[in-house]
Fold this protein.
Amino acid sequence: MLLKRNSTLTMIMLLLLLGIIFPFQNCAPKKAQEERGSDSGLSSLYAYFMYDYNSKPSVYSNTALVFPTDSIGNFAKFKVMGMIAPADGSSGIVTYTVDVTDDHGNTICVGDSGTLESDVQNFEFQCLGTVAINKANVILKTTFNAQTETFKTTFIK
Amino acid sequence: MEDNHQQLLHFIPMAGDLMFLNKIFIILTILLSLSAQAENVSLIPIFSTANWIAGLNIPLRVSGLEVVPSALISFEVVSGSLKTEDCRFMQDPYIPQNFLLKCVSDGTISIRVILKTASTLQPNGNPIQLNYGPLVIKKIAGLKLPSPGGGGGGEIDPDLIAGQELFTSNCLSCHTKTAKQGRSSAQITDAITANMGGMGTLTGLTSLQINQISKYINAP
């Protein structure tokens, strides 16, 4: 009987050990994509993400530009798309303006402005620019909770 | 009768057994509370879209757990057509709760990240594993992606980057950024000189490096 009790206790101990170890399996640091390297490693990581904030971001944004594939005379339709969302994960109101300019700040395509709220986080518009444009800067200005941010993104055809 | 009495005695737990069973109950309760806590922690997308575009950032936020700065231990693509090398993952240095994911190719992915925690529910700082996905990442015909170096919200302070790295490698094992906010370079130097909490091992840090650490921990 004593032997039986001991084996039962051993089983319980083993099950407990398994219970402790199981939740933490695969928790050991892996070499895959370790993102904490040297200063230059961190800088290149920020460059990869184009993370240029120098203070706490109020919003995250993405912008993309579709260069025209066909033209009407000397003009062609560009398409600008973007997404903006509060960085705190809330669904507050974000106002924005978008300008499309050359390197000297001259408008090359009429921009857009608007308000995003609730679940709407996307904007998209088309504008007319000259066919010869091979490089454009999309300047996105956002305001959320009285904090204004400016994002300049360069696109090359 | 005597035999029956002896057999009955074997089934009555002794006082030592009762203490042992009590310990088992406590351990099981702790394990259950840990697993319940882990179930409530998740990665959620900040953009409410299902149309992810290759080459653009995918911001994600950890919900259900206060994330410490420099928490990322590892990131990997666990399934899908893309590989870990096709994507990268970073923690927002200003908002530790947020992370950015970016994949340069189109395809599907499910990711797994392992983060350090300092949650009160995990006082021993055990890492936590979070999964997210599957995500479908597409390419759009004719879409031009931003050119690197195109700029964003301004220039990031290089001292802040250096400070974060120094803090991670020298301080994070004992201190969180939030807990040490307000500490000046002089206070850090004094703590090293006085060997407070064994900080004497950091005498190799230069005054520039200490300034960078101070700048980082006092950044918003």
